[in-house]
C-alpha cells in the first residue's frame, strides 16, 4: 500500500495509483486533515471516473495521508461563499461516491485518526472499512448548523437502525473505533501499526476473487431495500445467470469438480 516514490512529494489533493489489479486512492491534504475543498472534490471525482473506466481493476483501497482519514469539508473554503461552494463541492463529491458504490470491484476504506463529516459519509459509502485503533468518528454537521451529505443519511439508518441513526445525528457525539465496530459501521479494528498490512491482505483477497460476481453481489445487496421479496428473487436469478456466462464461473465450477483452488481472472 506504500505510495510510489514519484507521488510521495506530490501536492495533488488526491493521489491515485495502481498496484497490479489493486487501485489506490488517497486524500492528500495532510496539513488540513484531508478536509475537502473544491480542488479536492474535483480531484476525487476525476479519480473515481478513472476507476470506473478501468475494467482491469479488481479492488480499490481509499485512505488518507497524514494524521487522519478525513476531517470533513474545508470550513474556511465554505465561509467564503457558502451556498455556491456547497453546491459545487457536494455535486462533485457525490458524483465520486456514486461511482464507488456502482463499481464491480470491492471498495475498502482504510481509516485512522479523525473520520468526520464528509469523511464519515465517504467511508460509509465504501463496501468494507478497516479502522485503526484510536480512530475517532463524528457526524460533525450539526456543529456547523448543517445537515449531512456524502451518503450518510442513506447508509447510517440501514446499518444501525433508524433510532440509533437519529441519536448519532441529532446528539452529534464522537465515538471510538470499538463503538464503531459494535454498531457495524466498520468491519475490523486493528492496531494502528498494522492498518496498511491488514488492509492490504483483505484487498489482495478481494482482488483475486471473481470480480464480476462480486459486483453482482454488491448490486443485489445495495438495491434490496428498494425491492419487494419477489422482485429481489427475480434480480437474484438474473444476476446468477449473468455470472454463469463468465470465465470465472467456468473456472469456479471446474475447480470445485476437480477439487482444486480456483484461479479467478476477474472476467
Defining key terms:
267 residues; alpha/beta; 2-enoyl-CoA Hydratase, Chain A, domain 1; Lyase 2-enoyl-coa Hydratase, Chain  A, domain 2; 2 domains; 6-stranded mixed sheet; 3-stranded mixed sheet; 12 helices; globular
Description:
With 267 residues, this protein is of the alpha/beta class. The chain contains twelve helices and nine strands. The strands form two sheets. The chain has a six-stranded mixed beta sheet with strand order 1-2-3-4-6-9, sandwiched between helices. The two termini are 24 Å apart.
- Strand pairing plus helix content: what structural class? alpha/beta
Number of strands: 9
**Going across the major beta sheet, what is the strand order?**
1-2-3-4-6-9
| Overall number of domains | 2
> Looking at the chains present, what oligomeric state does this protein adopt?
single chain
- Major sheet attributes: 6 strands, mixed
Order of helices and strands: EEHEHHEEHEEHHHEHEHHHH
Radius of gyration: 19 Å
CATH C-level label of the largest domain: Alpha Beta
Q: Give the distance, in angstroms, between the N- and C-terminal Cα atoms.
A: 24 Å
- Rounded mean pLDDT is 93
Can you give the helix content as a percent range? Answer: 40-55%
Amino acid at each position: 500500500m506504500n505510495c510510489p516514490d514519484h507521488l510521495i512529494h506530490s501536492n495533488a489533493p488526491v493521489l491515485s495509483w495502481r498496484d497490479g489489479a489493486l487501485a489506490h486512492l488517497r486524500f492528500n491534504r495532510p496539513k488540513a486533515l484531508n478536509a475537502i475543498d473544491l480542488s479536492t472534490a474535483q480531484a476525487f471525482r476525476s479519480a473515481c471516473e478513472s476507476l470506473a473506466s478501468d475494467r482491469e481493476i479488481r479492488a480499490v483501497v481509499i485512505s488518507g495521508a497524514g494524521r487522519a482519514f478525513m476531517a470533513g469539508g474545508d470550513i474556511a473554503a465554505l465561509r467564503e461563499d457558502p451556498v455556491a461552494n456547497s453546491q459545487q463541492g457536494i455535486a462533485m463529491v457525490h458524483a465520486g461516491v456514486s461511482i464507488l458504490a456502482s463499481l464491480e470491484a470491492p471498495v475498502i476504506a482504510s481509516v485512522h485518526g479523525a473520520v468526520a463529516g464528509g469523511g464519515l459519509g465517504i467511508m460509509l459509502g465504501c463496501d468494507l472499512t478497516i479502522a485503526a485503533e484510536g480512530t475517532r468518528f463524528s457526524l460533525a454537521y450539526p456543529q456547523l448548523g448543517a445537515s449531512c451529505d456524502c451518503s450518510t443519511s442513506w447508509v447510517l439508518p440501514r446499518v444501525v437502525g433508524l433510532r440509533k441513526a437519529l441519536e448519532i445525528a441529532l446528539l452529534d457525539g464522537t465515538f471510538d473505533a470499538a463503538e464503531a465496530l459494535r454498531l457495524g459501521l466498520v468491519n475490523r479494528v486493528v492496531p494502528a501499526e498494522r492498518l496498511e498490512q491488514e488492509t492490504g491482505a483483505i484487498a489482495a483477497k478481494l482482488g483475486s476473487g471473481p470480480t464480476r460476481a462480486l459486483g453482482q453481489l454488491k448490486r443485489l445487496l445495495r438495491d434490496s431495500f428498494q425491492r419487494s421479496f419477489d422482485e429481489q428473487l427475480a434480480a437474484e436469478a438474473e444476476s446468477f445467470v449473468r455470472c454463469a456466462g463468465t470465465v470465472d464461473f467456468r473456472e469456479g465450477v471446474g475447480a470445485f469438480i476437480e477439487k482444486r483452488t480456483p484461479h479467478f481472472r476477474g472476467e
